[in-house]
Design brief:
Largest sheet: 8 strands, antiparallel
Order of helices and strands: HHEHHEEEEEEEEHHEEEEHH
Shape: globular
Number of domains: 1
Radius of gyration: 18 Å
CATH class: Alpha Beta
Distance between the termini: 38 Å
Number of helices: 8
Helix content: 25-40%
Strand content: 25-35%
Number of strands: 13
Strand order of the largest sheet: 5-4-3-2-9-8-7-6
Amino acid sequence: MDLDRYLARIGLDARPAPDAEGLAALQSAHRMAIGFENLDIPLGRGIRIDSESVFDKLVTRGRGGYCFEQNRLYADALTALGVACRPLLARVRLGLAEGVTPPRTHVCLLAEVGGAAMLADAGFGGSNVPPLPIVDGAEAQTADGAGHRLRRIGEAGTAGGQWLLERAGSPAATDGRAAPHADWQAQYTFDLSEVAPDDLEQANHWTATRPGTRFTALHVASIPQAEGFASMVDRDLTVSHAGGTDRRVIADPADYARTLREVFRIALSADEAAGLPLFA
């Protein structure tokens, strides 16, 4: 991990302190600088989640990535800053009906900060998530005005998970999967079981290759903004902000590449964009 190059990529001039405030500053900077995207899947390149590959893609080449990539990079940065952390696997509940048990296709982190366990997640594409103490009822707010909380809902190893992350806020500041109200909605569930490297490889492979899923059937990109959220699903762009929500349809590969660069801070050339099935 070249920590200084990573910090430059996310716009931080100094190394944050290894405490709760530093964690919040690092996570916010990461989320607003490195867009969430799955575009290597439709481009047929596959997703590699070893540290070297992830650093090269997200930092050196200025691309984005999805949770297995984002939180690999984030975990390496935390470790370089002296913050102990380990991965957790989660079931994404956003947009699903009650009673549906999805697979564990999201990775987040348990970070040890000041002797306390914290949920750290720089790779959730559905909305902006702040660090939260892993304590029943813990709450925090993000710059878009949304509230976030953790609730303990079951024993470790149960299908429902031991912990539930919820969000209450404008559905416009999400990737479009939220229900059309601002009340508490489930984001994902997880437990604190140990996760081995092969568990991550297995979950990443399923997520990147299973036909008919969100990541193999759609082209997605999202990024939190200072007071809102930007999301692009195929050619439909939605940008929420303090003044409202703007929507438009992407015209062509050049427009797509420009929008990725200017809105999502993702470097993809127009020639690469033209190779997406979206423009076939």
